[in-house]
Batch of 4 targets.
Target 1
Amino acid sequence: MPLNAKATQEFVPIKEVRDGVIVLKDDGLRAIVLANSVNLSLKSSDEQKATILQFQNFLNTLDFSIQISVQSRRLDIRPYLLLLENRVKLQNEPLLKLQTKEYVEFIRNFTDSVSIMTKSFFIIVPYTHTVLKSDSGVLSGIFKLFSRKNKEEIKAASRVDFEEKRSQLEERVSVIQQGLGSCGIKSAQLGTEEVVEVFYKVFNPGEVEGKIKLE
């Protein structure tokens, strides 16, 4: 087995992505919330101060830690150019057809000379179940009980445990989204396919921008 392949797996702490929730190797859970941006430069000085103060108050009310990740990538303009080229083929008016062709060439030349970047804002919401020392004896008994059970019963118990933890995580996600909404920021929790796409692009930075977007 190649050394680099083994090292890559060891450095990734993710066990699986389940129902849009990231399950870590230490059984901790993570959810990813995609947030839109707010252009403060378009606001007045008072509005800027109010928005910043609202966001500060939102962060101060949290009783758990979060991570904010900003990803900046080059925008893939090829689908838009393909759409325009198809419009040219369907255009019957000679003048409009010529203008559309010129516009396509302008966009192609412009994007070749200038890198158009797009930014994505992600908030990582964590939940890790804390095991108290006083619970160690109880857990030991549970593990011994599980050892006598069949695989189906163990899987069922695991699903129940996951759902309980996910319920706690979803409550935190709700708090985050409500807080962002109070600041005028739209947000949405990512599903399984979107989470996988985020990590694929993190580990493959040369890829063009994907389809993740905030509706």
Target 2
Amino acid sequence: MLLPSRTLLAGATLVLAATLLPGGARPAAAGAVPADAARDDGGRLVRIALAVGVDAPRVAATGAWRLADAAGRPVARAADGEGWTIERSGTRLRAVGPDGPTAWRDGMLVAQPIGLGAFLTYGPRRYRGELRLHAAEGGVTVVNALPVEEYLRGVVPLELNAFAPAEAAALEAQAVAARSYTYSRLPEFLPRAQAEARASHPFDLRATVADQVYGGADAERPASDRAVRATSGLVLRFGGMVVSAPYYSACGGSTAASGEAFGGEGQEYLRPVSDRIPGTDRHWCDPAPRFRWTRSWEGDDLQGVMERYLRRYASGDAARAAGAPVGTVRGLVVQGHSASGRVASLAVSTDGGRYVVRSNEIRYVLRSVGGEILPSTYFSVDAAVDADGRVSRLTLRGNGNGHGVGMCQWGAIGRARAGHDFRSILRTYYPGTTVEFAE
């Protein structure tokens, strides 16, 4: 699942990497430490890609730490705060420290903290668990392996900025949704064929909006930690299966069916849900900064955006005419709406032909001049045409922010402030699901 643009959310392409092994250099701590040592609380591990195919990543720690190979055999030991650079040559890796490099090794290298309270660091952030370094096309892939509950501590506060006591139920609902999304991507919760294919990948999720935004230990907050603990192990199930639970910033009045945004038949538990407050003309997500929004383009700006993005996402004969110019924009017409009222299809007429853009891809075509995607597909179109028949100004007036499928985060905040608990919030946005323990 892609989680397109989100505001309250900060929310996978997978790279195959060679399976790796042993090494040697500066004396390491005695004893072998298995590569799954992050499982120190008995929790299920998740592997998060912090970077894919980067050149010479540098790993350090807030205390003493060591490098091991995939079998847990010692490779090197680093002093407090000492940084080591990981180099790649083909499928081999080595670590370079203050006293020189280790031997080249055909295998994953694993960085592990020594002692309680120490964190590994990569870039500006601290991480719990361990860091696994894999050879990948173009460089090194850096993966943080840690228990799911520890991972969620670095996800929930970035995906939902709601720390007031009255908003605790929204954070708890977010924790369950994020945990469900995570578990639905672990091999043991996938159908056998998918699980076997996933076994060849070095990670389960990315640390970006391609999956869920993850900031490591530095992102943790007391309120979100409480939400993770209060819901520990709880996930959403539908028909006995742990479900992927998408979410986004604000629905603008109604959530969307999954097929509206992502195509396909969709899921029964991801269907349109009204966010209207009963007995009023208001909505639970009214306070969202983009509950209502307007975006406008002058003619030249619109032309520039279309030339840059239209052919990439559109269908139709004009879009298939490789190398041909897009042509002057002559009109934009909404061709149909989805069940939730969002734009299902937008036709763009130019001198080069007729282009059709559908569902969530509309957001990637109608970008701002700066490249920001459209907040949502819940909009109306006002196009001004000059005497030459050219669109001289386009104005969209819309509601909501995000793809609209699943939990409306601002709606969850509004419901929490009104006294709803996390279970009722989840039942609303994922109808037909039940909250159960993952085990």
Target 3
Amino acid sequence: MTFSLAGFCPETGMLGCVISSSSICVASRCAFARSGTGVALTQNITNPDLGPLALDLLDKGMAPEPVLEALGEADTDVRWRQLGVLDTQGRGATFSGSEALGIYATAQGSNCIAMGNLLANDQVPEAMTAAFSAAGGPLAERLLTALEAALEAGGELGPVHSAGLLMYAAPQWPVVDLRVDWHISPISELRMIWENYKPQLDSYVTRAKDPANAESYGVPGDM
């Protein structure tokens, strides 16, 4: 009941993912990333423990395929999962268990992976990787373009209600962590939130790293 894409930008070193689902609060359970490490996606009938575990294994130098094998050994119910791992070399791997729901599929592109279950058709992940590869501009724009392409290609069989955009750069905390936990049009709502957050992204990083030279907040009472 989810479709997602993880992407890496070799020019900037930024990495992240987008995700949407008919379920509430999908990004809080299914999307994981870490600076200088990679992205892990765990969906279908989700085990959120597998996200941090995948990132820990990537940190130890394991490639995505062995990471997925290790996750399968760690989770005796892995046949219910759909998993994706992308590292900072742009290498990716995906897994769909035998109990994945409805129409499910995965796809790999240059510096990206995509997957989904309970899909309207099995071409949705391919539409996401193609859109990500064809899009220009910052990583966030490419990720959102891929999510919008998934919806245009059919998306989930039923209506989606939640969506998220998660991105890491040099800081150890997410430079973008935007979520729409319940909405009639979560992907367009996520786009709106990003358009408002985009001009402020660098300012929040500066406030953390160099507060003496940070921009003002521009709110009442801020001198």
Target 4
Amino acid sequence: MRKKVFEKTIKATIINIIVALCFTGAILLSIYLFLGAEIDEAVVTVSRYAITKEKKELPPTTISEDNVIENYPEYGTQYGTIEIPRIDVNLPLYYGDELNLLKTGIGQSPLGYFPGEGGSIILMGHNFVNMFRRFSELQKNDTITLKTTYGEYTYKIYDMQIVKETETDKLPIQDDKEILMVYTCYPFNNIGYATQRYVVYAELVK
């Protein structure tokens, strides 16, 4: 008799736990759907303050007439800004692709080249509301400007693609032409890990 009562108690407890978890999940999902933009903005604000405190003096970065950069930016530091007028983007540009950098601005992959070197440049950013959430509004011939500590470079968009994260051939590294590739997670309203990327391709025009 006691065994049956014990088993019923255990089953009832497990069911209560499952119901509580489902209820909590539903509440969290509702909060994100209604306050997702505000949460994103709060995270970015806090992270930007944390990284700002870590800034330190570095040797000036320069570039010669034959596109040779001296004193490359240190990994993890801001070396410029990215401006995309069409979607009102004006964000810090960091050398690096770590999570703490992408919370506050746009990161540059160390696999590619730097602006002005004449090769492929790969940038990435979150689809937060005040970052790349409006990426789908970009059109061909829109401009992207990278203002670095050693020069200003403007690129014109010529293509946009939705690719799988495994399609690395869609972000080719080449050294014969300066191509800017900027991507973010897709879909833009995705909750959880996204397996697709929205990539914008632009060529140097100024």
